[in-house]
TrEMBL record:
Its EC number is 1.3.1.9. Keywords: Fatty acid biosynthesis, Fatty acid metabolism, Lipid biosynthesis, Lipid metabolism, NAD, Oxidoreductase. NAD(+) binds at residues 14, 20-21, 94, 166. SUPFAM superfamilies: NAD(P)-binding Rossmann-fold domains (SSF51735). This is Enoyl-[acyl-carrier-protein] reductase [NADH]. It is an enzyme of class 1 (oxidoreductase). InterPro entries: Enoyl-ACP_Rdtase_NADH, NAD(P)-bd_dom_sf, SDR_fam. Belongs to the short-chain dehydrogenases/reductases (SDR) family. FabI subfamily. The active site is at 149 (proton acceptor), 159 (proton acceptor). It catalyses: a 2,3-saturated acyl-[ACP] + NAD(+) = a (2E)-enoyl-[ACP] + NADH + H(+).
Amino acid sequence: MYNLLKGKRGIITGALDQNSIAWKVAEKAHEEGASFVLTNAPIAMRMGEINALAEKTGSQIVPADATNVDELTNLFTQSQEILGGKIDFVLHSIGMSVNIRKKIPYTESNYDYFMKGIDVSAMSFHKMLAVAKKLDAISEGGSVVALTYMAAQRTYPFYTDMADIKAMLESIARSFGYHYGLEKKVRINTVSQSPTKTTAGTGIKGFGDFYDYANAIAPLGNADAESCADYCITLFSDLTRMVTMQNLFHDGGYSSTGVSDIVMQKMGLEDQ
């Protein structure tokens, strides 16, 4: 334990169960000396195990629908009251695609579902930041991190409309990062994580095969949820106080690897 977050206060969204990255982030933040509020939409809370995480980390829960400005206002207001001061770090770990859930091909996307995905998975980030800025709820030099995936830059057919949505999420981080950084020195970054065996990730069609493929491409292999949590902690800490408006790949080198010897061998293309 290094106590990288000793005395820091935070808000962590999206901790559904022990497989989720947000859950691991909460555990790591607790180990590093932070105090924080846990939050999720009421329906997700009924499905998950957030109460057990709250008990383990000595945290309180403030339910909030991240698409609702009034509920986000209540979240930031209550969190400051509970924690005794301004917020130092926020994790946005929210993602949902009805089109993926219903196995609708990208070229046949239901636009009502598409808009719902945008609101939940990307616009919620803008709303969260706008509320925090209006309330002056994040301390100077604070850090906000949102989880994303590299389908925002490259095409992965199975990721359908979430690819477009994640691209919007990353753009919001850059755009809002400029304004919030200029005015309050608040840092805003996205972490582009490897395919990860979370409850949400494994629900995507063909996830298992792609997980193995990415693992064979990445020189270090796929980054797991625990290592992603470690990375998020460094971004919440003062060690990265000059890092902002970045999309940071945490994927074992997958995003920078063109050809993998392992994949070539499996295809029977290695040199004789």
